[in-house]
Amino acid sequence: MSTQELQQLREKITALDSELLSLLAQRQQFTNSVAETKIRNHIPVRDHTREEQLLIRLIKKGQEYGLDPHYVTQIFHVIIEDSVLNQQALLADRANPGSSLPLNRVAFLGDRGSYSYLATQKYFSRRPGELMEIGCKSFSEIIKKVETNEADYAVLPIENTSSGSINEVYDQLQHTSLSVIGELTHPIKHAMLVGADTELSHIRTLYAHPQVFAQCSHFLAELGNVEVKPCDSTSAAMITVNELASKSVAAIGSEAGGALYGLTAIKSNLANQKENHSRFIVVARNAVKVPLQVPAKTALVMSTVQKPGALVEALLVLKNNNINMTKLESRPITGNPWEEMFYIDVEGNVQDGPMQQALEELQATTRYFKVLGCYPSEEISPTKVAAVNALAD
Ligand SMILES: C=C(O[C@@H]1C=C(C(=O)O)C=C[C@H]1O)C(=O)O
Q1: Which residues fall in a coiled-coil region (predicted)?
Q2: Which ligand 1 atom sits closest to the C-alpha of 47?
């Protein structure tokens, strides 16, 4: 093939890709209009039957074009997830008139390039208003910014699939009057990031956040003769490596973040667990109302009385009201040795009957009890198409 032919083919691909984008944007407009009709007619956002029918039709159509059913399914799962999240954001916005701001001042850990920065960008990209980023050095500083009205929202990492709960954030929640108003999960893809002309074998010092070192411990053990230096955040590690401009240093962080500082990835997938995701919560001074058409989660915190079976009793309240618990975490109570504060996430909306019943009962059975917030669930489970494997054969 001549270079001219290659050039022509690439031009055709470029044109098709632009067309694909324009079609995706049109689809997004239609699905947003669907959300408007759902608001007017009180219809739930999610419709698994519609999704299944749509996927089956597309898989069949794709096969006529010679496209693999799994490939088609994967692409449309991403498209549908995006459309559901956009619709949920729209419904949540309408349910809280006057709450959307022309400027969202958002406090997060680190600077441009940190995972919290990427999560902040992602969450607010679906919401109206401009974004003002307020990078902070600690979780307590982040919380304080919102409490003192220097920021409107805080984005805080709360748990990670490989290193578990982020205790410091739970401890901050114990003392704040802020409410949880949202959540999101973001893939954490650790890469070794370096400046120009750096080779893996020449690296002597690695900069990263301590959580990141914990998540990449297997890789670091194999790496051997390299000094690890903890930083306040992933972005601080990137800034340090950029400033040092030495061929013997590297940072660990996301490729997208590193690119903001002119760093490139020389090794990817460094985390112990390949499926590495962080869950973030979004907090604000005022609680939000979640429309009943959107799946909701509620975050609770409580301490039980000191008697045998007190925690079981509290959990039975959830069971008896048919409420599913998605997370249970315990943290020591500062100043009260050997006493624990329990953080519980449940599926459900505080406006729902069974949930209100459960909250009332919990209030009565516990020593301390507080609703930290009710927020739209952003866990969008992909609709399974039973026929996909059969169709693939
Ligand atoms: C767009 C809709 O909302 C959701 C998103 C869908 C999509 O992106 O195709 C399909 C069904 C719903 O779960 C709809 O109900 O039609």
Answers
A1: none
A2: 13
Torsion angle, alpha carbons of 229, 234, 235, 239, to 10: 20
Structure confidence by residue, pLDDT tens digits, 134-185: 999 999 999 999 999 999 999 999 999 888 899 999 999 988 999 999 999 9
What global pTM score does this model have? 0.92
CA dist 66 → 63, 181, 390 (Å): 5, 44, 16
CATH number of the domain within which 160 lies: 3.40.190.10
355 close to ligand 1 (CB < 6 Angstrom): no
Query: Distance of alpha carbon 334 from its chain centroid, rounded?
Result: 29
Q: Are residues 125 and 143 in the same domain?
A: yes
CB 392 within 8 A of CB 68: yes
Residue with the nearest Cα to atom 2 of ligand 1?
Answer: 31
CB of 251 sitting under 6 A from ligand 1: no
Which domain, by its residues, includes 83?
A: 3-96
Query: Quick one: 209 and 165 in the same domain?
Result: no
Q: Domain for residue 57, yes or no?
A: yes
State which of 96, 123, 146 marks the end of a domain.
Answer: 96
- Cβ of 190 closer than 6 Å to ligand 1, yes or no, is no
